[in-house]
Amino acid sequence: MAITVNGMLPGPTLEVKNGDTLEIEVVNKAKYNATIHWHGVRQMRTGWADGPEFVTQCPIRPGGSYTYRFTIEGQEGTLWWHAHSSWLRATVYGALIIRPREGESYPFPKPKRETAIVLGEWWDANPIDVVRQATMTGAAPNNSDAYTINGQPGDLYKCSSKDFGETNLLRVINAALNQPLFFTVANHKFTVVGADASYLKPFTTSVIMVGPGQTTDVLIQGNQLPARYYMAARAYQSA
């Protein structure tokens, strides 16, 4: 059985604005110690809210709880949150969306809709056992049995939708533990506008490579005939 947050894989998407203060209570109902890390958030005078186990806090023991409090300062775009204890991160993660302050706008045309695309891994085993076995043998951990898009493996799962003529913003997050992933949508091009909660000078490409823990924001145009198009992620492999 996978350990998740609120029974969801990925976990809940947090949507905030630049300048907002977050207060999040984490209750640990799992049988393992746990902490939550707010990946990429600049912890300004709130280092104790960063989340790495035994670095900025003691772990949240089974049955315990901890309240994280921090403020988003000067960041806009896509980040994410995940467990920071052993390999709980394999299934304990979710998106953190940071929009502009009230009255401010994106430095690019406003999209019709926005979709978080969270890329992950799946083991047909307890990920904690996978990393423990690797520690005992000294070998690298076994590769995952599947890659996922928004928690779903394989073909024919609906990841996103758009209407003809509209512009969508895809917020792509690589939540895989160790693998850089290439990501593309068949017959479409991307306009890359941001990465890791920072805006970029826009450029166009048909594929992006997202490293573990990284995020990339892309605009996609609904300029193809209405149909179903593959959305695919593939691991980087070298000879």
TrEMBL record:
<keyword id="KW-0560">Oxidoreductase</keyword>
<comment type="similarity">
    <text>Belongs to the multicopper oxidase family.</text>
</comment>
<protein>
    <recommendedName>
        <fullName>laccase</fullName>
        <ecNumber>1.10.3.2</ecNumber>
    </recommendedName>
</protein>
<dbReference type="Pfam" id="PF00394">
    <property type="entry name" value="Cu-oxidase"/>
</dbReference>
<dbReference type="InterPro" id="IPR011707">
    <property type="entry name" value="Cu-oxidase-like_N"/>
</dbReference>
<dbReference type="InterPro" id="IPR008972">
    <property type="entry name" value="Cupredoxin"/>
</dbReference>
<dbReference type="GO" id="GO:0005507">
    <property type="term" value="F:copper ion binding"/>
</dbReference>
<feature type="domain" description="Plastocyanin-like">
    <location>
        <begin position="114"/>
        <end position="237"/>
    </location>
</feature>
<dbReference type="GO" id="GO:0052716">
    <property type="term" value="F:hydroquinone:oxygen oxidoreductase activity"/>
</dbReference>
<keyword id="KW-0052">Apoplast</keyword>
<keyword id="KW-0964">Secreted</keyword>
<keyword id="KW-0439">Lignin degradation</keyword>
<dbReference type="Pfam" id="PF07732">
    <property type="entry name" value="Cu-oxidase_3"/>
</dbReference>
<feature type="domain" description="Plastocyanin-like">
    <location>
        <begin position="2"/>
        <end position="102"/>
    </location>
</feature>
<dbReference type="GO" id="GO:0046274">
    <property type="term" value="P:lignin catabolic process"/>
</dbReference>
<dbReference type="InterPro" id="IPR001117">
    <property type="entry name" value="Cu-oxidase_2nd"/>
</dbReference>
<dbReference type="GO" id="GO:0048046">
    <property type="term" value="C:apoplast"/>
</dbReference>
<keyword id="KW-0186">Copper</keyword>
<dbReference type="InterPro" id="IPR034288">
    <property type="entry name" value="CuRO_1_LCC"/>
</dbReference>
<dbReference type="InterPro" id="IPR045087">
    <property type="entry name" value="Cu-oxidase_fam"/>
</dbReference>
<keyword id="KW-0677">Repeat</keyword>
<dbReference type="InterPro" id="IPR034285">
    <property type="entry name" value="CuRO_2_LCC"/>
</dbReference>
